[in-house]
Sequence to fold (280 residues):
Amino acid sequence: MKILNGKELASKIKDRVRDTVSVLNESGHGVTLAVIQAGDNAASSTYVRNKRNACDYCGIKSLVYNLGSDATEEHIVNLIHVLNITDYIDGILVQLPLPSHIDERKVLQEIDPKKDIDGFHEINAGKLLIGEKTFVPCTAKGIIKILKENNIQIEGQNCVVVGRSNIVGKPVALELLKNNGTVTICHSKTKNLELICREADILICAIGKPRFFNKEYISPNTVVVDVGIHRLEDGSLCGDVDFDDVKDIVSAITPVPGGIGPMTVAMLMENCVEAKIAKI
Ligand code: NDP
Fold:
C-alpha cells in the first residue's frame, strides 16, 4: 500500500510557487490575495490561518477581512465590489461556510471572475464544464495533481466520486472526465453505494461523514482519495475513510491529515499566481 503524501507534494509545489512569486516581485508584479471571513467558525479560522501561512511562505501578500458573524450580505458584497476594482488585488476568496443569514451563492457571483481563484463563480464553473481554461476549484485540482504526480493513471479507469457538491464532488468529477476517466457520481440517494464503490479503480470520498468508508466499500487494489476532514472529540483528525480498516486492501490512499488538505492550499497558491500572470 502506498501513502499518497499530500503534505510533501504540497511543500514542493509551494517552493515552485515561491520561486515564481520571487521573479514576479522582482519585476514589480507582487501577488496579493484578499480573504473574506464572516463569523467565528473555528474550522474556518483554521483554514484561513493555513492559507495565510502558505501565502507568507510563498511571498504572496494576504489581506484578511474578518467581518464578524453579524455581517450583512450587503456589507460583504460591498467589500467584494471594492476589491474587484482594486488593481493590486489579484485573487478574492470568501471563506465558506458563511453565516446562515447570508446567501452564499449570491455572494460568490459578485466576485470578478478574473479574481475568482476558488473557481466558484458561475462563469468559471461553466468554463470548467465545457473544458475551457479557467480557475479549477482547489480541492479538485489538488486531487488530480496528487494522482498524476504519483503516476496513477486516470485514463480509462473507473472513477467513482461520492459527493456532488459544487465545491468538491462536481468539479473533481469533471476533472476526472477531462482526463479520460470513466466517471460515476454518487450521492445520498444513490442505491447500492457499496457495490458501486467496489467497482472503482479510483474512489473519491467526499461526503463529510467521519470514517464512513470501510472495507465493505473497497475492492483490493483501489486507489482511495479521502477528501473529508473531521476533528474528533479527542482533538485528532480523521477523514471520510476508515483508514485502519482499509489500509491493507487499497493500492494507494491519501491520509488525513497530510493528504488532500495541504494540496488544496497549495493549489490556491498556484491559482493566485495564475490570476496575476493573466493580468500582466
Ligand atoms: P457537502 O456537505 O456540501 O456535500 C456532501 C455530499 O455528500 C453531498 O453531495 C451529499 O449528497 C453526499 N452524501 C452525504 N451523505 C452521504 C451518504 N451517506 N452516501 C452518499 N453520499 C452522501 O460537503 P463538501 O463537498 O463541501 O465536503 C465534503 C467533505 O470534504 C467534508 O468533510 C469537508 O470538510 C471536506 N472538505 C475538505 C477539503 C480539503 O481541503 N481536504 C476541502 C473541502 C471540503 P446529497 O447531494 O444527496 O445531499
In short: Residues 139, 162-165, 167-169, 186-190, 193, 206-209, 227-229, 260-261, 264 surround NDP (CB under 6 Å). Residues 131 and 260 are 23 Å apart (CA to CA).
